[in-house]
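Supplementary Data S3. Sequence and structure tokens for construct A.
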Amino acid sequence: MRCADRLSRAKVNIGLKIMGKREDGYHDLDTYFHLISLADRLHFEYEEASSFSVRIHGNESYLEEGKTDLIEKAARLFSSQSGLTFSLDVSIEKHIPSQAGLGGGSGNASVTLTCLNEFAGYPLSHDDLMKASLALGSDVPFFTSGLCCAHATGRGEILTQKEAVDLPALIVIRKGDRVSTAQAFRLADQKKEAKIPLAAWNPDFHSWSILYHNDFDCIQPVLEDEDFLEIARTVTYFSTSGSGSSQLLVMQSIEERERICELFSEKDGKFHIIKTGFCKNIHSEASF
């Protein structure tokens, strides 16, 4: 048996433009992905076996909704691509909220693919893993790429490395808010606007509120909440991450982050607040 512990990081989007619906039913996107220190912890136990099996612990609330975990989909895809059968046990210590636009499930799937490839002696090349990642979801290739910050186009798989930043941040979610990605795209498709690409990447976050907007901002109910807005408007940059429902708030200093966090905490438990920060490199330590 082989065992491993891995961090599965969250990502945020700095700007997101929907450039159009494709013939295959997916959408062309224009966005900047950036890893943050918020992360799930995954423990893998792998053993060669005559038949495939996978057991997942720690994500039961998601599975109870009748969904198939992306970890299981990743394991099945790896078995199919590599021709190998195995028994896999995965225990998850969850910190990344679901349906928040933070790529929790996508990151878990990517870590599963890369860890299985390591256990099996690297039967799949990096290009193979990137193709398998895209089959699992549009965000998954970014996590598999090994990049901290990237410009993403196509479905999200055409990645160009960009300069990473090192800044404190908050993830704020109004309790009860959940945004379905499929529904978000359906609503966005109804908007008839010119498809203007994002501006070139500027690592100076003071310019972000002018340069980088998210097309999914228009469907976030929290952006009509005065309790949220009176605080968020005091920071240099805030925006929806992915399709939501989380809001990313970026600060200049830890002290400012603590001040903003305290303001949200005074709102009678209305908001779920996560202290985090941008990852300057892939070896940055996670903080929760």
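Construct B, processed identically:
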Amino acid sequence: MVKDRISIIIVTHNSAEVLKGCLGSLREATRDTDSELIVVDNNSRDDSPALVEQSYPDIVLIRNERNKGFARACNQGLTKTTGEYVLFLNPDVQLDPGCLESLKAVIRNDHKAGAVVPRLKNSDGSFQPTCRRFPTIYNIFLSRGSVLSRLFRHTHVYTLPDYPETTVVEAAAATVLLIRRSLMVRMSGFDERFFMYMEDTDLCRRLKSLGYRNYFVPAAGGVHDWGHGSSSGTIVRAWYHHLSTWRYFLKYLPNGFSLLVLPVILAVNLILVILLQPFRRSGKS
């Protein structure tokens, strides 16, 4: 392990459109930081791996012959890291200068710091919520993937607001997430039962159960072009989001509701999400 180094892991799947901007932002973001970069490509059909090989020969590239999902690909990348810290980074994010050092400072100052995440913005500069409470049967219906959340956009029953200071949160997205490598190894990485989505919430829950604190750090920032990290269709992403939600409840709340009632509710919500897509694209919802 190299002390103070940050090992950055990016998982790609047909991400060439945004990957170039992400890697370009890292040049400035890592200017004063000892770092290494690992890209795990999940069988892209575009130029994602070629972009890395031709323009960034110093990057460690892992090419999978099939899409192994986000959690498993992140764990693959983890095996190649040498840094004291690991940063999981989506390819559709551009980090602000100083972001990495601000995140690292929080971990240095608290030996019980678990997952540490920055304040992310949308491309128009507005705040993008990435922190949340742990899912329950009471708040899950107001999560981002729920149709009901469109009627109650400004409630914080599930999704947490923008905090002005560094704040302990229950769970945070792995869009940009820094953690000690030793702690990630101790946790055996992400739970690979989650193909994509909920693997980060699951990790945060396991961290909290061991007495660690997860932090939202507004002094660290970046721009997340949400939904453009992969060319996978909206329906495919919605399917995995609903499937992972069900698996999360089966893991932590293995009761009759989770086994029999929740899958029916999720199936109805998934159908509504699919049916409403044309209206969302036309700006009617």
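The chain has eight helices and twelve strands. Residues 2-229 form a domain with the Spore Coat Polysaccharide Biosynthesis Protein SpsA; Chain A fold (CATH 3.90.550.10).
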